[in-house]
Amino acid sequence: MAVEWLLAFLLLGSFAGFMAGLLGIGGGGIMVPLLTSLFLAQGIAAEHVVHLALGTSMAAIVMTSVSSMRAHHTRGGVLWPLVKTMAPGVIIGTFLATFVAAKVNSLYLAIFFALFMGYVAINMLRNKKPAGGEKHASKTELIAAGAGIGAVSAIVSIGGGSLTVPYLTSRSIDIKKAIGTSAAVGLPISIAGTAGYMLNSQPGLELPYAVGLVYLPGVLLMSAASFVSAPLGARLAHKLPVATLKRVFGVLLMLLSLKMLWSVIASS
């Protein structure tokens, strides 16, 4: 790998990890659009770049998920019975959705990603807190919800927090416990998603050191960088105006998503 690409992956991992630690938001929203641009710049065909970005991003957030889960578990913020109940649905939904994503045209994936990130960004700009609810979820509902959360998370390569937290709070779960439990649910999402993307491949995609739709050098470099930068972001979370930063980050998410969509359209 040329030095400039090595540095690009390290910088991307550092930025994604820092923002994840600072704002509690997974790196998929940052990594996917920027990875798409990196892969296009490396000369990879437009019909493959979004799929490769999704798979590589999903694999890179495994370490972030482990770190986040451990931090919340240490503080007693994870409701493990809920995690165990949701896990089968999460794993199946995430794994199967990777096979769907692998068959979908890059342009349609980019459109779906941009729309979803637009939804996330709008919620951040509004700084809307998840609404609480009085209804308790049944075991069947939790498994089904896990499958749905896992499926969407696989298609946009996220840890699922933007979906899991609002869902759990609507089912009478305290917001802090919902965030911790969501962090734990993010681990099976990232593992199942990585396995699914590694098992998928596309005709015409020939990239050294790629396993299926996961580019291993990018994963290793971004994971190492984010592992170092995430704690730095977490420390600054108590010193910086996080509410303001979330609004800025919301705008950034929208711009990155639109840039990705335009890049795919222009290169098709």
Which helices and strands appear, and what pairs or packs with what?
Elements: H1 3-23, H2 28-41, H3 46-74, H4 80-103, H5 106-126, H6 139-156, H7 161-169, H8 175-199, E1 210-211, E2 214-215, H9 216-236, H10 242-267
Antiparallel strand pairs: 1-2
Structural description of this entry:
This protein is 78% helix and 1% strand. It has 268 residues and is mostly helical. Strands 1-2 form a two-stranded antiparallel sheet. A hairpin with a 2-residue loop joins β1 and β2. The longest helix is centred in the N-terminal third of the chain and has 29 residues, at 46-74. The model has no long low-confidence stretch (mean pLDDT 87).
Estimate the global geometry from the Cα principal axes.
globular
Write down the oligomeric state.
Answer: single chain
Beta-strand content bin: under 5%
The spatial strand order of the largest sheet comes to 1-2
Q: Terminal Cα separation, in Å?
A: 25 Å
Instruction: Please write the string of helix (H) and strand (E) elements.
Output: HHHHHHHHEEHH
Overall pLDDT metric: 87
Largest sheet: 2 strands, antiparallel
User: How much helix, percentage-wise, in residues?
Assistant: over 70%
Specify the number of helices: 10
- What does the radius of gyration come to? 17 Å
What's the count of strands?
A: 2
Structural class: mainly alpha
